Structure formats: structure tokens, C-alpha cells
Amino acid sequence: MDNSRKLIVGYDLCEDYSQLCCYSYKTYEPIPIGTSEEEDSMMIPTALCVKNDSRIWLYGKEAISCGKEGLGVLVDNILEKINNKEEVEIFGERYSGVELLEKYLRKTLTLIKDYFPTETITKIVVTIDKMDQRLVDGVYDALFMLGIEKDRATVMSHGSSFMYYALSQAKELWLNDVGLFDFNEEGLSFYQISINRRQKPMIADMEKEDLSDTLNLDLVKDNKVDIKYTFENLANTVLYKKIITTLYFTGKGFKGNWAEDIFKSLCAGRRVFVGQNLYVKGACYAAKEFSGDGNLDNVILLDNDMIVCSVSIRAYVDGNIQEVLLTDAAVPWYEVNREVEVIPDDTTDMEIIFRNIMTKEIVRERITLNPIPDRSSRMTRLKLSLSCVDRNRAHIVINDLGFGDIYQASGKIAEYIMEMIE
Length: 422
Hints:
The protein is α+β, with helices and mostly antiparallel strands and 422 residues long. It has 3 domains: 155 residues, ATPase, nucleotide binding domain (Nucleotidyltransferase, domain 5), CATH 3.30.420; 143 residues, 2-Layer Sandwich (Nucleotidyltransferase, domain 5); 111 residues, Substrate Binding Domain Of DNAk, Chain A, domain 1. Strands 1, 2, 3, 4, 10 and 11 form a 6-stranded mixed beta sheet that branches. Strands 16-15-12-13-14-17 form a 6-stranded mixed beta sheet, with helices on both faces. The model has no long low-confidence stretch (mean pLDDT 90).
């Protein structure tokens, strides 16, 4: 595909404001998309409003204004409605959170037409703060309602977006570790990317430290903490003895000039960047990578939602005993979903193999297939299903599928929760 015809979209979906951008193959960077050329128009309130007189749906700032003036029914907290399976009734019609999100996405994505009037979306990455499974599924469902299926869409965390943003910058900016202070509604967090350059391909690992108990917006609003003093102490403590090339700062908590002097003091020996569009640009860079136009083929990105182990089974395939890969490492745990069918041959157990890409450690575990039905050899068909409970635990379910018309399926015969190598 001609790159100039690709439409690569990054979308930062948040409860209060959302942002979107598209990758420009002229400037080789994401360009922000807003309701106007003004900078604050890029921050689009995540809200809808249905006008009382015309029943027209509004979004963003227009929706907020319409609702405040009493001229329509305001709908906000859309992501919360998805997580809570909450419906709202508007003029006699009921709408689920997913249906509301579909309307909001449809309205905002239409803004792209002003920049790319004829192209259809090649790849879109939607980044959200927390990867709650219900919200992730809701975003995919809303995109599907817009005709965008999973082959063109990916949902990822803010942490993953930060990794794609940081590693898409000039290499001198990630010569050593990279840090990010995020001060949002839920408080202060610190992300650190560490890169193992000795492995081929290189592995970029990310850890997140939650500092919200010490510094959050509620404490600041209630004047319970000295924000400058507390943040400076936290920053210096977190960064103590760490070799960090570049620091990023984002989040509404940094708005205003209160932290300017602290930023300057942290510049000693480091590059420092402050902005509110880091995640949306990171999502855009990720979409570019996923579209087949990547620059990070020599780096494995391993964020705090991804499993660090590959998982395989040992089986007889095409005349040879070999390992069958169920999932690779560096995959978000919530996306691990693999099924394979096997026919046991005079055996009542199976070997599961975990390989840690960080430590290179290999662990082999044997699981029992009992109570396997008492049938003739090679007359039982089993389905093995692999998913994950979290990034450290695999969930394996084995079901008896019977054998054609000869033997009926008996259902589940085994289930295991297995610890993966950390």
C-alpha cells in the first residue's frame, strides 16, 4: 500500500476529555485533530447531549454548553456506564454505554474528514487509562458498530502508549532509561522504561509505581499537602541513583506554572518534556507499527500488562514430537486466548512449557488429563483452551470433544491455574 494513502489514527479515550491524531507521512509525526485550529480544541470533552427541540446529538464542548443551559439532556461519564453496564433513558429511548460510546466515536472520528477527506482508516489504536476487560470489550464493540473490526483496531493502556511514544523519538532520547510522571485525576504515578540492549532483539521493559497515596488532586484541593514540596520530594526520591536520559510529564495535575522550577532542576543531565498529548501520539505511533510500517522491529516492548513467558505444549505433529506454541511472550495478558485440539495416544498427562524472554529460564510442567474417558487408543479428541488470569498466571481448561459419531462429548475434564515464570 502507498503510505500516503494510509490513514493511521491514535485515539486517547478518557472519562473527562479525549484526543485524536493522525500520522502524517509528510511531516513523519502525528498531527492533532480538533474541532478548530485552536490548541484547546484538541481536548474534546467526552460528553454527548440531545437537544430538547430538534433531538439532534451534540458532542464535546457544544454538548457541555447545551446541557448547562438546560437546552438538552447531557450524557457524560460514558466509560463508567460501560463498566457498570448502566443504561440511560433519553426521550423514551434507552441507550447502553456501548451505544453512547459508538455515537461519541462516530462524531469525533468525523473530524478526520477535514484532513483526510477520502481515506478510510487503515489502523486505529485506542488508548485508555486502565485495561478493565468490560471497557476494553466495550471499545471494540463500539468500533465494530462503526464498521471497524479487530483487524483494524487495537485497544491498549496508557503505559503501552507511553512506550511507543518514547521509543519512536530520536534514539539519543532513550540512550538510557526513560521516565514519565503522570499526574491525573487518580493521583501521581511514575513509569520507567528500561532497555536491555544486550539481548537481540532488544527488550524494553516498563514498571509502574503508584504514588497516589502521597499526592493526588483531592489532597491538593483540600490543601492537605504542599504540592510543590511534596512533588519535589517524591520526584527526587523516585529518581535517586537512576540513570534516566529523558523525563516526561503529563496530566491535568501539572497544569499551570507551579512545577516550572522543579522541571528545571530535574533537567540537570536529562532532557525534560511537558505536554498533554503524549498518550494520543503514542497510540498513533503504535498504529503505524501495527499497520506494517514499523521502525521498532528490533525492540520487544514489554509493559506491565504483558506476559513475560511464551507458553507451548509438547505434541506429536506431522510425524515428529515438537513444541506447539500457544502464545508468545510480550502479549497483553487479557488478549491471550488460544484453543488447540489434540488426540492423546495412551497417555493421561500433557507437558506445558514456559519460556521467560527476560531471564531465558525454561520451566516444564506436566498436567493430568484425568478423568480422561475410557476409550480405545486415539479415539478421544480434546480441546485445550489457554487464557490468563493476570500477567503472571495462565488458565488452562481441557474439554472432551468426543470422537465424531462414535463417542459423545463428555465436557470439561480438567482445569488448571498455573504460575508463569517472573
